[in-house]
Amino acid sequence: MTFICGEYNSQKETFHYINAGHSSPICIRKDGKIELRSETQRVLGVLHTEYKHLTIPIYSGDKLILFTDGVTETFNDNEEIFGDENFLNLLKNNHHLDPQDLSDLVLKTIQEFRGKKDPSDDISFICIEVNKNYDSNQ
């Protein structure tokens, strides 16, 4: 079983997390640059593992993407895989969208790619944008 758990610290502008075999987070910087994280650790339940805490600096205007491998490992009727390259291109070409619109587009694109084929895995996609100007009293 894979697992990812994290916490955003607005004071330190960091996302601290533990990744146990899950798809690594992606950071889309305010300028549209995509940063891939490659740190992963053993899945849960395989040997005794001390999981190390990982950190990503996240600044105002940056987006943090968390997703399951069902996003990139979606197959269509021709047994073609959606893949990392299509996913990263989709993020790169649409980095300017707000989190809800980007999430909707990713899920719509996956569904269109898949066509009539049933999903073979769960598909989860979370996009979080840091907004330093957010007023929690609104």
From TrEMBL:
It holds the Pfam family SpoIIE. GO terms for molecular function: phosphatase activity. Keywords: Hydrolase. Residues 1-130 form the PPM-type phosphatase domain. The keyword Aminoacyl-tRNA synthetase does not apply. The keyword Glycoprotein does not apply. InterPro entries: Bact_Sigma-Reg (IPR052016), PPM-type-like_dom_sf (IPR036457), PPM-type_phosphatase-like_dom (IPR001932). PANTHER family: STAGE II SPORULATION PROTEIN E, STAGE II SPORULATION PROTEIN E-RELATED. This is Stage II sporulation protein E. It comes from Leptospira interrogans str. 2006001854. The lineage of its organism: Bacteria, Pseudomonadati, Spirochaetota, Spirochaetia, Leptospirales.
